[in-house]
Amino acid sequence: MHKNYVTFLSILVITVLSACGSAEPAISAEDIANTAMAAAWISITQTQAALPTATSIPPSFTAEPTFTPPPTLQPIPTLAPATLAAGPTIDPCNQVPPVEPQGTLVTVEFENQSGGSLNLAFGMNTPNDRNECVTYSYTLGNSTVSSTKVLAGCYWGYGWVTAKEPSVAKSGSSLLCLTDPSLIYHVVITKERIEFK
User: Fold this and answer.
1) pLDDT tier, 3 (very low <50, low <70, confident <90, very high otherwise)
2) C-alpha to C-alpha distance for 48 and 53, rounded to whole angstroms
3) pLDDT band for position 122 (cuts 50, 70, 90)
4) What is the rounded distance in angstroms from the CA atom of residue 87 to the CA atom of residue 99?
5) First vs last Cα of the chain: how many Å apart?
6) How far, in Å, CA of 183 to CA of 85, rounded?
7) Which of 6, 98, 136, 164 is most buried as measured by Cβ atoms within 10 A of its Cβ?
């Protein structure tokens, strides 16, 4: 009978314990977030602890150089006084266009086919009959056509193209001569060239 009593008591204890432990504790989203944050801080702390400590490097001693007297030089022969140069030469055609030009004006239409925005320098190669020699500067957006008046003459062109792949457009060794005021000149700028259309 003692054996049955122990078995009965064991079953009763197991039943009572299982009845008490059947409810699952509910974990809130805030508890999960706090647990994740704590785990992240533990990882950061362990990473910082694993880094080597900074050690100072002792300064090294470098001896000062000793003085060595320069060699004795021969006397310099006397030369005739030099004449002073007039200073740097200024390109006569790299001038800002005048507010009221004196020479003949022609119409030019610039068409940007470079695929990007464009900064264009358009300069005269030689002065006109009124001694005017200028460089014009234009900014053109992608696929822009711009019409303007310039002094009659022969021009070079140089453009900085800002596109997905930046490039430089230039007229190269050929000049663009705009001399007839009754015409409208069409100049096309591509990724690498500036030329008549």
Assistant:
1) low
2) 10
3) very high
4) 28
5) 118
6) 45
7) 136
* Residues 53-76 as b or e (16 or more Cβ within 10 Å = b): eeeeeeeeeeeeeeeeeeeeeeee
Encoded tokens for 99: 């507010």
Q: What pLDDT, in 10s, does the model give residues 23-56?
A: 566 677 787 777 777 777 777 777 776 777 766 6
Q: Distance of CA 115 to CAs 34, 109, 112, 166, Å?
A: 53, 18, 8, 10
DSSP-derived secondary structure for 62-73? -PPPPP-PPPPP
Q: 158 by DSSP, 3-state: which? A: strand
Among residues 159, 48, 39, 164, the alpha carbon closest in space to that of 110 is found at: 159
Higher pLDDT, 156 or 17: 156
Q: What is the greatest pairwise CA distance in the chain?
A: 140
Report DSSP state, residue 39: H
Dist. CA 153–CA 180, nearest whole Å:
9
Share of the chain above pLDDT 90, in %: 39
The contacts of residue 166 (CB under 8 Å, 6+ apart) are 116, 160
pLDDT of residue 69: 73
